[in-house]
Every structure is written in C-alpha cells, then in structure tokens.
Predict the 3D structure of the following.
Amino acid sequence: MFSKMKERKMAEKLDVRTLQRNYEDYGEKEVTVGGWVRSIRNSKNFSFMVLNDGSFFTPVQVVFSADKLANYEEISHQNVGAAVWVTGLVTLTPEMKQPFEIQATEIEVEGPSTPDYPLQKKRHTLEYLRTLPHLRARTNTFEAAFRVRSVAAYAIHKFFQERDFVYTHTPILTSSDAEGAGEMFQATTLDLKDVPVDEKGNVDFTQDFYGKPVNLTVSGQLQGETFAQAFKKIYTFGPTFRAENSNTTRHAAEFWMIEPEIAFADLEDAMELAEAMLKYVIAYVMEHCPEEIAFFNSFVDKGLIDRLNHVVRSDFGRISYTDAVAELEKHNDEFEYKVFWGCDLQTEHERYLTEKIFKRPVFVTDYPKEIKAFYMKLNEDGRTVAAVDCLVPEIGEIIGGSQREDDYDKLLSRIRENGMDESTYGYYLDLRKYGSTRHAGFGLGFERLVMYLTGIANIRDVLPFPRTVGNCEL
Amino acid sequence: MFSKMKERKMAEKLDVRTLQRNYEDYGEKEVTVGGWVRSIRNSKNFSFMVLNDGSFFTPVQVVFSADKLANYEEISHQNVGAAVWVTGLVTLTPEMKQPFEIQATEIEVEGPSTPDYPLQKKRHTLEYLRTLPHLRARTNTFEAAFRVRSVAAYAIHKFFQERDFVYTHTPILTSSDAEGAGEMFQATTLDLKDVPVDEKGNVDFTQDFYGKPVNLTVSGQLQGETFAQAFKKIYTFGPTFRAENSNTTRHAAEFWMIEPEIAFADLEDAMELAEAMLKYVIAYVMEHCPEEIAFFNSFVDKGLIDRLNHVVRSDFGRISYTDAVAELEKHNDEFEYKVFWGCDLQTEHERYLTEKIFKRPVFVTDYPKEIKAFYMKLNEDGRTVAAVDCLVPEIGEIIGGSQREDDYDKLLSRIRENGMDESTYGYYLDLRKYGSTRHAGFGLGFERLVMYLTGIANIRDVLPFPRTVGNCEL
C-alpha cells in the first residue's frame, strides 16, 4: 500500500501474513513491512524488535544494529505500540525458534507511541482489557478472537451461499413483537424530556418518526419466513437485541444471530442443515485460523482442538424430550434442579445429556408445547411441538429451532391461546393461506459459536464492542 | 428435502435451480420438484402449469393430463400461489421456447391457495406491491432484486475476505455520535408515558438500560478505525440508521453500509480499493445472476448491461474538487444550482462530471474542509481535506471516503473548531497517540449499489422491509 513509499522504495511491500506464509520464497530478498512494535530488546549496538501488522497471528522478528541504521538511537528507543516501516533482508534461520528474521537496512517511524501506552509487554487480565475497547484488539487474545469471529462469519455466508440460500436482511426496527421473546428496546425520535400525549393521556406516537411505537428486533424469524415462502431457502445474519437485565457471562444486549429458514422441509431437514452447518464452520475455521486455534488450545482452553475435532467427526445424536427426561430422571440426585416431564431443561441437564450420556452433540426434539413458542408445529400427540435444541459439550444449547405451524386454524388458535394481538399477525397468518408449506428453521447465536470455537468463557470477550446492562462504551 | 417424501418417492428431488442449470442431464429421467404455482392454463383433458420454487429466476413448465393423474380435476383447479409437489419425466423440447418440460405422473398439493391471493398473473405496479411486503418477493421483479441483493452481499464479503480484511461488527447501539452525520434514533427502555426526571428536571438516564442516552449508529467508521489500527485492513457491513424526515427515492431510515478502513495507507490506496471492489462486485453479480440482470435489462432499465460492462472495463477517472469546479463552471447555464468553489456538489453536477465530462466513473478528491467531516485529513494547502467521492453515471455519488486526520493536535483542533464534545472522543484521539498511521477508508451504501446493479429507481424496492418516515410495516 502507501503510494509515497512505492515511489521511494524498491523493496517489495508485504503484509506480515504474506511474509509468514511464504517466507521461504523471500530468503535473502529485500522487503518492506509496516507494523506496530510489540517489543524492543536492546543489546549493545544491536536490537531485536517484535513487529506485527495484525494481518497474521505470528509476529515478525526484526534485527537492527547501529552499524546499519543511521537512526539507530531513535529506533531503539521507540515505545511499545509505535508504528514503523521496516525495510530489510529476509534471512532464513532454520536453527532458531522462528524460521526467519528481517535484518533491517532502514526503519522509519510512521507514528510514535508514548510511554503511557496501556498495553505493555506484560500480560493483562481480560477484565482490565475490557476497559480498553479501542485498544484491546492489539493484544494476542483479542486479535485471535476477532479474526476467528471474522473467518467464522465468512464461513457461515459461504456455507449458505454455496447451497443457494438467499441472504435476507430482515429489519432491525420492527413494529411486531417477534415472539414475545423478551424485553425490547424502543427506538424513538420523540423528545424524552417532553413526550407528547394525546387527549387520553397516552403517548402520542403519531408524532414519532414512524407514527407508531417501534422496537429493536429480537429475532428475524417471522419476517424471514415470508422470504422462505418465496425463495425456499433463506438465511439471516444480523444484529438482534434483548433488553434483559441479566448480568451473566453468556448474555449480551446486542448480539448477532443466524436464522436459516427452509420451505418444503420438516424438522429432520432442519437438523441435517444445522449439523452440516456447524461441522462446516468448525472445519473452515480450523483450516483457516490454525495459529489462532493453537493459541487458544494452549492458553485459554486445553481441550479445545480435541473437542472441535470430535464435533466435526461425530454423528450428532437424536433423542426426544420425553426420552431425554426419562434418562435424566435416573440421575436426579446429581442435579440442583430436579428433572420432570414438563420442565424446561437447565444447562446442567443439557450438559449431562451431551457430555455424559451421548458424549457428542445431540438434538433434543419434541418439547411440551407449554414451554415453547406459539409458532411451533403441534405434534399429533397434541401435547408436544416439533421443536429442536442442539446441545454441545461444554456449552449446552447452541441452536434452537422448530418446524413451524403451517396450518392456518391451528396457528390462529395458538395466537389466541397466548393472548397475542391477532391483528399484528395478519401477514404471518397469510403465509398459511396462500400456498402454505411445511417449513422449518433455527437460530444460532453467533457469539455462542465464537465462544465455542475459541474456548473464551465470557461473551464480552468475543464481541468487538460489548453491550450489556449498564455498559455501552463508544 | 422433506423426509417423508424421501421414503415414498423414488424420483430424485431437485430444486428448480439444479434442474434448470442441468436439464440436459435429466432428459427422460423422473424427478420431483416442490414449488408454487405461478399460473395454470387448462385445455381439454390436459393442462400447463408454470411452477417455481424461488431457487432460480426461470420457472419450470409442467404438463399434466387427465389420463395420467387421478386427481386431475383437483390439480387443474388450484389457485395461483398454491404449493405443490410435482413428480414426472423431464422431456427435452429443443424446438420450443423453453428447452424442457416436466410431464407429470403425480402431483400432490402441499398447501392450497385461495382465490383472493393478491398476486394474480397480471402485472402489478411496484407501488401496489409495496403494500404487500410479506408477499412481494414472490413476484419476478422482487425475486430478482432480492437475489441480486444476496449475491452482491456475498460478493462483498468474498472480495474483502480473499484480501484478508477482518470483518468487524461495529455496534448498532452507541453512546458516541459518529460524526454529527444526521438525526438519530434514540434507543431506550424507559417508560415513555412516565419518563423519570432528576432533581434538575432532566431525564434521569441512570434509570435507562445503559445508564446513559444511547443512539442507533449512523456509521461504524470511528469504531472501525480502532480495529484498523490493530488489524491493518478491516471492513464493516451492517445496518445503519438516519432519522431524517426526507421522503425521496434514495433515502431510507434503515439501510446497510459497507465501511472498509485501511492502515498504513493513504487516499490513493483507498481509491484503488474502491475501484477494485466495485468492479469485482459488478462482475460477480453479472456472472452469478445472468437471468436476473437480463430481466432488469429488458424490463426495468434498457441500458443496464452496457452500463455495468462499461464500469467494469473503465479505468476510473481522477480529478480534484478544485479542477472539477473549474470544469463545471463552464456549464453553469445548464445547472439549476450554480457551481462555485466552496459549494457542495449537487447530483446534477456529479452526474454531469461522470456522464458528460468523463463518460465513466470518476473520483473527485480534496474538497474544501468546510463542507466535509472533522476527521478528514487536512491537506498541506490548509483549506482542503483528503476526501474522495466516487461518482458513477446515472447515480452520482456512490462512495464517499477520505484519508483520516492522523495528527493528534490537528485532530483536536478540528474537534474544538466544530464545537464537539472533546470528552466523547478520547478513544479516537488515543489512536493518534499510540502508533498513529496514515489511514483511509470509505463508505458504500449497500442499497445504492443494489439500485445500480438492477436499475431499480426507488430504494424501497431493493430493501426487503423498507423503513422510511411514517413506514415501518411488520
């Protein structure tokens, strides 16, 4: 890049990624690399600099000396974090830990750093780094986490696009409450200091931007279904919101979700799709981020690589909720919350099923209708619905889905039973009137997936700018 | 798909896409296709059905007759929009307009439709179809538009990921006003009927979800820059919001934006990136959606294919704002708004430049600082900034970008000059303190791009669920 440098330098300009991946091709050649100083270690008349530009996990070692650099003093006293351009000879060092180094012939400061730079070479806690959302991506753990996040996001697009799914941007602002899924944020242009009221004393939303109350979406599923009934196979991938006052390591108020929806398809088809997708994304990230995954396996979660390989190689198990409850009841003495038919499964139960009973990922299907959403297809038994949760070791639920109720009358009954506002769901009922099809889909919380891929335990550390109750920095 | 069908049928189940792309391989073979009835034309004892499943633009023709189908009466009286499963022999018809048809041996109704189905075979106006956001994707124009949208989105990811850019999810909810770019939506969990106030009579935001006022983002650029200073090359692709009370064919309140940001790079690098990206996406969509583009070229915008090819083959022009103004002033008699140095260029000027003067896309650079944002790099002349707009024929501006001010003191002055709240920009100033680099980036409105790719003139028709002032359906 940088065109002025192009004019001046004859050396080939490279990203660290290109150099690291192909260093053997550059042996004894002159190259130019721009990057940030991770550390400088000075000996008498020569120094070592660890340099990275963020394009690759492994940094480059630069050797520079007073006899080659006129500005040796200036460079050897740069602070950690300084941005520099290094030109020098790539020297292969097969006997050393790092297979090559750059012997600098010229180093130029692009932008210095100050001694108060908060990321010194010592190891910082993740908690401390959370207070530096604008800088923490420059540390090993976050650099690795956010690159895995990027590559995983691409793997998801690639998986669906190669299968001709239509990527559908369902709206963020919505006038329909997707499923009563939880507390919502309201979006408004009204002046909160002086909210207009009508003659009855209610908020006068005719003066708001949309002329009515509007919320931030909790799920794109219902709108996604309208597109699945046109394109057969669609997926969403976008931000969703929950204004829940919960302060856990697994919940954020703003997070990204993937929601595929397939028509002419049933619950079994949705499970096959979910299994194929998870395996694809895991395999893709392991192939494209080997350095990052190795780092997480060494420093964050020792069992990570084994676990990921195990998921890719396993056939996922299948069990009905009813059978799962029967199995779990045998171990009720081991649980804090006792299991019984009709209960919502807790994480401890989910993990027991997948870790102890199945020892691999498992789909649990056909839950009691009382604990599931109104749009799920009622089974013939009249008491369960065609829901599915996918449970994985160490996490529990990672995917939740269902076949959707495709019968107009049954759906209408469920809407009424749940005391929901029928008029809001006219569009959704229409889908059951005009060429209704058996159809199914699921939701995957993207951050849960990234946590699973990295072993990172706190959702705040896989979100570039985490939003949780009381926290909205930048 | 659909597993119960799998058990019963021996015929291979196919998407319409697979069949259309490979019909020669299926000659005289039996296949099963699920889809929706676009039309049925009945003759005596036999009928033609046009069937599509939304996986491909071109539908399939099905022939069925009373002597082969026991349920001929039922099928021949299906309404438009009905969902059916068709099994039959693929018969090649090289002498006909469509190169093959399916001669049905079995047709099963998956879900009927009713006679009041709003999408009858006749042509509907786009305005009317906007009143049916849950159904319009089933019509030719919208099916084509939303598939192009999906494929273009993927092309963007593919372009950046192949160049090792890190996809960065900048936040939707933000406590910083990105650039004073426009009116914003506020997100809150306060009860609007009873907004709490503190002792001074101000809104008591300590009771709001985040403990402070929070808005929907207008741009991810500033947060994106923090990641570019870690990863060197990043891009965002997500929803952004403007609560502007404007009712035009080119503005929506919720839209998707792509914002790449590159470090160790200057304005020239950003222009090279923008040009490569536009050409890549256009070429990718033309290659992967030839049927859709041909449809738009025939029915929406006769010059479309020529124009797109022209962009792919052109070297984009370059001109400074100052020189552009000098050129345009010669034609001031042709403009509604007269051009002078210091004025903001209007669409009529932009189009004149790209259509009449350059006859190809053109980058206009180095605008007066007064008409551009605070973060743009001040040029050495002290009166212009390193800004760039990319103008394309028929549209005008499609991309806006700049090199960013990387000097701490100059940036601080600009923040103060603009009367902005300095304390909010501490994180942004830090980037100029700790290893500052020359860096640049740009923003591409995704809907503008889809309009350009399809010739569709109204932004409401390229957004799956358009949000504009007074409109937020579903």
